[in-house]
Every structure is written in structure tokens, then in C-alpha cells.
């Protein structure tokens, strides 16, 4: 029987790591590891590597290095983005629009923000997972 090629369909959970990333990161998985918050030489070298990476990313997207934040996961990133934007702009209004098919971390952040006094509008979606543009337009304040 011929061996079939594997088809991976769970990219929402994790993705294969690009070979270039593996090559760039390999030294830090072995001999060059260190806690970026430590004051010893290994920590200083790790911190230097992270800051160099921050500059590379910033340059690639025409951003300032101070605008680049590394997180440990998409969940952490979504929490930081949603809560950060909400609190940074609360003087402009405390209204957030989401759909019921957002990632669980977005739904949980929205619930948390609701407890903090934000108003959450939950748009419905059709059988294809799409929102209705007129419903969105009516929800915008």
C-alpha cells in the first residue's frame, strides 16, 4: 500500500516552524540560552538577541522598536491588543463590537472588559460565518 502524504489541517492551533527560523533559533536552544531579565552575561546576550530581533521586525514593517512587543502566544497577544486598545481609548467610548465566532481568548477578554464597564455588542453571523454589514453599521457608535 502506498504511503499517503500527510495533510495538516490544524493551523489555528499551531503551524510548522519555518526552516530559516529553526536555523536562526538553534543556538538559543543549546549553548546561547539565557533569561533576558538576568544580569549575568548569558542574560545580557539573550537580551541583546531579543533587542536585535525587535529592530529587525520593526524595520521590516516600518515601525519603531518601541512599538514591537513579543508575546508567548496568540492568546496573550489577543488579550494585550483588546484590553490595551480598550483602556487606551476609553475616553472616546467604551463600546466594543465582536462576533460569537471569535477565538475563545477574544470572547473571554470581552467578558472581562464587560465586567470593567465596557459595553459589548455581539453581532450575529450567517451560515458561512459572515457578519451582516448593515448590522455592523448599525452597531458602530
Topology readout:
Layout: H1 19-29, H2 41-60, H3 74-88, E1 95-98, H4 104-115, E2 119-122, H5 133-139
Parallel strand pairs: 1-2
Organism: Candidatus Roizmanbacteria bacterium CG09_land_8_20_14_0_10_41_9
Family: Belongs to the class-V pyridoxal-phosphate-dependent aminotransferase family. NifS/IscS subfamily.
Catalytic activity: (sulfur carrier)-H + L-cysteine = (sulfur carrier)-SH + L-alanine
Structural summary, described in words:
- The chain has 141 residues and is mainly α.
- It is built from 5 helices and 2 strands; from the N terminus they run H-H-H-E-H-E-H.
- Helix 3 runs parallel beside helix 4.
- The protein is flat.
Keywords:
46% helix, cysteine desulfurase activity, Cysteine desulfurase NifS, 2 strands, 2 domains, mainly alpha, PyrdxlP-dep_Trfase_small, 141 residues, two-stranded parallel sheet
Which assembly state applies to the chains in this document?
Answer: single chain
Q: Spans with pLDDT under 50 lasting ≥5 residues?
A: none
Beta fraction = 5-15%
SSE order: HHHEHEH
Q: What's the number of domains?
A: 2
Work out the helicity level. Answer: 40-55%
Number of helices: 5
Structural class: mainly alpha
Mean pLDDT: 94
Largest sheet: 2 strands, parallel
Shape, per Cα inertia axes: flat
Organism: Candidatus Roizmanbacteria bacterium CG09_land_8_20_14_0_10_41_9
Cofactor: pyridoxal 5'-phosphate
Family: Belongs to the class-V pyridoxal-phosphate-dependent aminotransferase family. NifS/IscS subfamily.
Protein name: Cysteine desulfurase NifS
